[in-house]
Amino acid sequence: MQTDERGALADQYGVLIDGTERASSSGETIDVFDPATGDQLTTVAAATEGDVNEAVDVAGDGFEEWRGYTPAKRCRILNDVARAIRDDHERFARIETLENGKPISEARGQVTRAARHFEYYGGLADKVEGESIPLDDDHVDYTIREPLGVTGHIVPWNVPIYLFARSVAPALAAGNAAVIKPAEETPIGAIELTKLLHENGVPEAAVNVVPGDGAEAGAALSGNPDIGTITFTGSTVTGREVGKAAIENLTEPHLELGGKSPLVVYEDGDLDVAVEETVKGIFATNTGQVCSASSRVVVHEDASDEYVEKLVSAVEDLSIGPGLDDHDVGPLASASHMEKVAEYLDVGREEVGDPVTGGRVLDRDGYYVEPTVFADVPQDARILQEEVFGPVLTVSTFADEAEAIQRANDVDYGLVAGVITTDMGRAHRFARDVDAGQIYVNEWFAGGNETPFGGFKDSGVGRENGTQAIHNYTQIKNVCLDISN
Questions:
Q1: Are strands 40-45 and 29-33 parallel, antiparallel or unpaired?
Q2: Name one Pfam family in it (predicted).
Q3: Contact criterion met (CB below 8 Å) for 119 and 79
Q4: Do 177 and 300 reside in the same domain of the chain?
Q5: Are 307 and 182 part of one and the same domain?
């Protein structure tokens, strides 16, 4: 192990239950690999169903302790966590790059967002308020928002540290305990971040980590009857199974699932901005491995040739290489995912022909696929309709506003949509008519920790971020008093 590059990681990790890191009950482990080289980084314990059930039981005790803290105390602790993440910023960024592969500058940005999430919800921890409801002169009626108890969190591999924070921070702010099942490919950030939570005042029993595969550990967590809610971020196929398991126990699931998000470019829009936002949205952010990627462009037919020419030039200027060297585009997160993306490259060639740029799996160590653009893609093509989750972009054209809206909506997903135009009336009509949970105007990845995030249609159920997330982790109790005597 090279200390200068991998000193942020231990040689092995265990399940983390009640503050104790240990082997799984089966003794089995999962190997974690560096996507930049394909080399093994470390090993982590593979939690069993028994380990998950133990973590949930322990978290029940942690919940009783944590909910007993005053809201003001929880506020101070979560803000201490935010400061501690900032103090240890570089180590967490290197962990994210080592196990996920993304460029280190991007990883630093995600760690900053994670710290901001604990800060934001630390600020809300003492503001989880009910309402007074006017009935009549004979009654006083009010509501109380109470925590759910033990919350389950299944965190994906694409943005592991920030997405840990996105659901765990509001759950803790509302007074809940948490059991986290990180992705098999990227479990280290969750373990190290949980240790930091414990070091800064969160009770050890209140946050537990059970790394392992989805078929056993993930299924055990989503199906545990003592979970108050389950939050899952990942594929639509797996999300449906998580949701079914939760509903069997009358547990409310929050599912942030897939996307096939359109960026509609009008002829009056700034094409340089359109190209810049396209590249940011599909290639230069986690190599396209984000559910909200700008994975399909729909451009006005009068601007199509110029847009594609500018786009190809920008894409071919991108550097590709290891995340620690901070290239524009890093590797994909795993060998199996690289194989999936390569299959879509073959599908694209069969459906459309050769891409206008890119299209190769690079012959080098690690899991690298060239940024790829397919042009003149028909609406029914699989590479336009299905989520590739990699650096593969489709470009198609439209003739008028009605067709632009129709093409934007004509997929199963509805997570994000964007528009490039100088006509603000057109932009507002786009926001009104497109079926998506987030609308970006002249900028991709607009918004922030404070803005609700989630999808329509097959993109999921519920919203993360903002004050809405507190509602995910509380239940309402109504109290009515007769004061007539």
A1: antiparallel
A2: Aldedh
A3: yes
A4: no
A5: no
450 is catalytic: no
Query: pLDDT tens, 379-432?
Result: 999 999 999 999 999 999 999 999 999 999 999 999 999 999 999 999 999 999
- Mean per-residue pLDDT of the chain: 97
Burial class (CB in 10 A: 0-12, 13-18, 19+), 482: exposed
| Domain CATH number, residue 29 | 3.40.605.10
Same domain, 112 and 251: yes
Q: Are residues 222 and 345 in the same domain?
A: no
Nearest to 340 by CA among 384, 283, 389, 290: 389
pLDDT of residue 7: 65
Instruction: Using the predicted structure, report yes or no on whether residue 1 has a pLDDT greater than 70.
Output: no
Q: Is 172 in contact with 178 (CB distance < 8 Å)?
A: yes
| Average of per-residue pLDDT across 244-264 | 96
pLDDT score recorded for residue 8: 80
Residue 427's CATH number: 3.40.309.10
Domain span at 310: 262-449
- Number of separate domains in the chain: 2
Interior/surface letters 404-435, b for 16+ CB within 10 angstroms, e for the rest: bbebbbebebbbbbbbbbeeeebbeebeeebb
At residue 57 the predicted structure's pLDDT band, cuts being 50, 70 and 90, is: very high
* pLDDT over 90 at 5, yes or no: no
The single residue of 99, 185, 192, 256 carrying the catalytic annotation is 256
Tens-place pLDDT, residues 289-319 = 999 999 999 999 999 999 999 999 999 999 9
Whether 433 and 262 have beta carbons less than 8 Å apart is answered as no
| CB proximity list for 249: less than 8 A, separation 6 or greater | 223, 224, 225, 227
Does the pTM of the predicted model rise above 0.90? Answer: yes
